[in-house]
Design brief:
mainly beta; Immunoglobulin-like; 1 helix; Spore coat protein U/FanG domain-containing protein; Spore_coat_component; Spore_coat_U/FanG; signal
Length: 175
């Protein structure tokens, strides 16, 4: 059976199996009864958080002093939900919220470079992970909010070995 014949056969089966126009609903006049149906939707407090990487500009030669960079955090929380944003110490051993460290990634390089994360461009308010102490506080509006994280790495007079120095800091939204 070729394709046109199959299509024709299919159309005939549809007609035989009862394809027809719907019959209008009947109208009744004996009375009626009603019931109330409750419809509800519960919205629970909630938040999501996302980050962008912080990459300091490459340093060459014998630079000393602070090197600055920024990153962004984005948070969406349900309207009127209070929250705190915290940043932990990072993944390098011996890092603390007040003295974070970047570690070299090459085998054998044990050098670390100190850096800080701050809530303000003047580097006056450290950003930590202790609620009620050094987290950033806000309230949800139901739309995305963006926050800037200000970073500052400190280079000493002794320049470390060439390498990529890094740490992974976890951002947490508490609600």
């Amino acid at each position: 059976m070729n394709r046109p014949q199959r299509c024709l056969a299919f159309a005939a089966m549809v007609a035989v199996l009862g394809y027809h126009t719907p019959t209008p609903a009947a109208v009744y006049s004996n009375g009626s009864a009603t019931a109330q149906m409750r419809v509800q939707l519960t919205i629970l407090p909630g938040c999501t958080i996302a980050t962008t990487p912080m990459t300091f500009n490459a340093v060459q030669g014998s630079a000393t002093g602070p090197v600055a960079s920024t990153a962004s955090l984005t948070v969406v929380c349900t309207a009127s939900t209070g929250y705190n944003i915290g940043l932990n110490a990072g993944t390098v051993p011996n890092s603390t919220e007040t003295n974070r460290l970047l570690a070299g990634t090459l085998t054998g390089n044990t050098t670390t470079i100190p850096f800080g994360l701050f809530q303000d461009a003047g580097y006056a308010t450290p950003w930590g992970n202790t609620q009620g102490s050094n987290t950033l506080s806000d309230a949800g509006t139901g739309v995305l909010k963006t926050y800037t994280v200000y970073g500052q790495a400190t280079l000493s007079a002794t320049m470390p070995a060439p390498d990529v120095y890094s740490s992974t800091v976890t951002a947490t939204v508490y609600f």
